[in-house]
Amino acid sequence: MDLGGRTVVVTGGTRGVGAGIARAFVEAGADVVVCARRPPDVPLEGTEFVSVDLRDPAAVHAFFAALPRLDVLVNNAGGAPHRPLTEADAGHHARVIELNLVAPLTASLAAYEHLRRARGSIVMIGSVSGARPSPGSAAYGAAKAGLENLARSMAVEWAPDVRVNTLVVGMVRTELSHLHYGGEDGIAAVSRTVPLGRLADPSDIGGAAVFLASDAARYVSGASLLVHGGGERPAFLDAATANKAGTSGQDLGGLR
């Protein structure tokens, strides 16, 4: 998809999913600016890096005001360490929500005038954690649920000038995957729970983001695109003793 001549900002685009998204837009011909607090360990070819603390509203507004134009904003920055609710105070959980929900709102508001003039689009990077229980990352899941709702509201309020959509992302293999899933054995075991048989590559997320930002999706707004390899196999299927080799389930009364 040709995005030549368009300027794209990817927040948190220095590594992992964000770097994959930035590379995909570069490959599509866009001028790509990535912003984060710290520069990437390895410069991303074809991108410009700007240091911005996305939790500092004044810095965010100054960053967007300095841009000559903007066609696409990808709100990717976010994340959270594994932390059960009772192992941290409310302030810690509030900071997780600030990064994953408030910061994308701040960036979107700061970018709005640019995007309105360009009739551009916003792509929110959501998560399957926003639609299911997320033990160990409850504040993160709550923030991602809020982000998806925020995107739908923005899509209505800012139409027809700005399209807003969400990528609901599943498990992705990045340089930090071992922190979430363990070593290679853990990653392989987790991969087997995904219907497509593997974790996503950052480029898979990047390709979907380019699609939502492109003219191919010009009539798509307020949508949530699932990029999760088919989702998760329901746990009851493996726990149930019926409908397995050597068994036959006749009574469907308990199926709901």
Strand content: 5-15%
Oligomer: single chain
**Element order: H for helix, E for strand:** EHEEHEHEHEHHHEH
Distance between the first and last residues' Cα:
43 Å
Characterise the protein shown here.
This protein has 256 residues and is an alpha/beta fold. The chain is globular and about 60 Å long. It has a seven-stranded parallel beta sheet, sandwiched between helices. The model has no long low-confidence stretch (mean pLDDT 92). It has helices spanning 16-27, 57-65, 90-118, 138-157, 177-181, 184-191, 202-213, 235-239, and strands spanning 7-11, 31-36, 47-51, 72-75, 121-127, 163-169, 224-227.
Topology:
Layout: E1 7-11, H1 16-27, E2 31-36, E3 47-51, H2 57-65, E4 72-75, H3 90-118, E5 121-127, H4 138-157, E6 163-169, H5 177-181, H6 184-191, H7 202-213, E7 224-227, H8 235-239
Parallel strand pairs: 1-2, 1-4, 2-3, 4-5, 5-6, 6-7
Helix pairs in contact: 1-7, 2-3, 3-4
Task: Describe the structure concisely for a colleague.
Helix content is 39%, strand content 15%.
Key terms for this structure?
seven-stranded parallel sheet, alpha/beta, 256 residues, globular
